[in-house]
Design goal:
Blueprint: E1 4-7, E2 10-12, E3 18-24, E4 32-38, E5 45-50, E6 57-58, E7 67-72, E8 77-82, E9 91-99, E10 102-105, E11 109-113
Length: about 120
């Protein structure tokens, strides 16, 4: 069964950068991958997604131009490069793999943007 593990979170100052990784236990070739985040007291929101082959990506306005999603299917890993981080980016970040109407979630990694 597919298992996902996020890593790369931490504490960073405003304006800084982090790269999150989402590593899978199986080949990710057939899965579209999304990154989501959830801040305390708020609903989980999507921050990026990438198609199974990596040819299509999408971002909400809140992160467009600052976040970049990419994937390396040979390494079973999807990345989220986050630049120009803001305090409002503070949240637990999750990755989700989707295929054939099934969703698989990781456990999340904490990102804190604070001076």
């Amino acid at each position: 069964q597919l298992q996902l593990a996020e890593s790369g979170g931490g504490l960073v100052q405003p304006g800084g950068s982090l790269r999150l990784s989402c590593t899978a236990s199986v080949n990710l070739d057939v899965y579209a991958i999304g990154w989501f985040r959830q801040a305390p007291g708020k609903e989980r929101e999507g921050v990026s997604c990438i198609s199974s082959r990596g040819g299509a990506t999408n971002y909400p306005v809140s992160v467009k131009g600052r976040f970049t999603i990419s994937r390396d299917n040979a390494k079973n890993t999807v990345y989220l490069q986050m630049n120009s981080l803001k305090p409002e980016d503070t949240a637990v970040y999750y990755c989700r793999a989707t295929a054939s109407l099934y969703n698989y979630w990781g456990q999340g990694t904490q990102v804190t943007v604070s001076s």
